Target: Helix-turn-helix domain-containing protein
Amino acid sequence: MFGEKLKAIRTKNHLSMDDLAKELNKKFNTKISKSMISRWESNQTDPSITNVKYLMKFFGVDYSYFVEDTDNVYTNKLYQPSNAHPLSKNIVKVPVIGQIAMGMPITAEQNIEGYDAIELQYDIPADELFELECEGHSMEPTIPNGAIGLFEVTSTVEDGEIAAVQVDHDSEATLKRIQHAKGQILLKPDNPAYPTLTIDKDHPGRIVGRLLEYRVKMHR
Model:
């Protein structure tokens, strides 16, 4: 598996996950984090095509190192990046979003920290889906901290639906229940301990996706 290969070459070079993240960011001016590397090594998510290239260049290995004797999703795809890699009729690869670049589509390559395999159960094209880790407690008890949400790429949601929203040029999305008002969009938490946020002319923001479902990891 890719994760085992990455861990092996990292430890062989006497690098911690934090060390590797810092070295990659310094060398390639990227935004890879220790947690991203941890998810790659545990095979929770697959790195993007761009990040695979960075790893190859950094460690001085060719593509075969990561795919030899493995059932790797990147076979014959290294120079054909895509936001969704079909594995079978109902299993697809969808991008896992990290930081969000302002003004860019949510699934732009620079926003993607990896890919995850899911069973497609919606009549929605795979390249219009993305995943996002739901961090924080504002949507509890509906959505627990650390849940992984599956979203449809859209800027339009109905009142009462839960959406991923980028607020005030923040590089991360917040998850809130939507309510439209005159000239405003109210972002309402399910947890009453948190305040309602507002999108209007004085507080810019954009809806980037509608929540379809979420799952909770048994071990984090």
Remarks:
- The domain at 1-81 is CATH 1.10.260.40 (434 Repressor (Amino-terminal Domain)).
- The chain has five helices and nine strands.
